[in-house]
Amino acid sequence: RLDAFEALEDIEAELAAYRARLYQEKREELDREARLVHDGVHSALAPIMEQIRTRRDEQLSFATALLKFRESCFDESLAVAVSLADAEYRRKRASIRQEMVSECLQTQAALQEEFRRHHVPG
């Protein structure tokens, strides 16, 4: 019995050492994988990162196209606003010119009328 008990203790000691060695190996393997993930080179991470990069590139492309479209719309809106402002300026200028010409003609007519009244040929 004593020999069996000692053999059982030896087996338990070997099992404990094996468990510790297995734990240490597993721990080293997990640390190695954690470093690979941290460095971005883990084999399971590569396809996911490629999908992320592809999606990012697509979103950047869309955002760039949207920005160009909005710039184009802004440029067209600016051109329309400038054209409308220029047309309004020309309309007001023509209106003022017409008023001034009309006022000058009225003043001329009034002066001619006054001249006739005061200088009656005799």
Helix and strand sequence: HH
Spatial separation of the terminal alpha carbons? 169 Å
Runs in which pLDDT lies below 50 for 5 or more consecutive residues are none
Secondary structure: number of strands: 0
Shape: rod-shaped
Number of helices: 2
Beta strand %: under 5%
Helix amount, in percent? over 70%
**Spatial extent as radius of gyration:** 48 Å
Structural class: mainly alpha
Q: Major sheet: size, sense and barrel closure?
A: none
Could you state the oligomeric state of the chains shown? single chain
What's the average pLDDT?
Answer: 92
Q: Short summary of the structure?
A:
It is built from two helices and no strands. By secondary structure, it is mainly α. The model has no long low-confidence stretch (mean pLDDT 92).
Describe this structure as you would to a colleague:
With 122 residues, this protein is an all-alpha fold. Helices cover 92% and strands 0% of the residues. The protein contains 2 helices and no strands.
Question: Which helices and strands occur, and which strands form pairs?
Answer:
Blueprint (H helix, E strand, L loop, with lengths): L1 H38 L5 H74 L4
Task: Describe this protein with a few key phrases.
92% helix, rod-shaped, 0% strand, mainly alpha, 2 helices, 122 residues
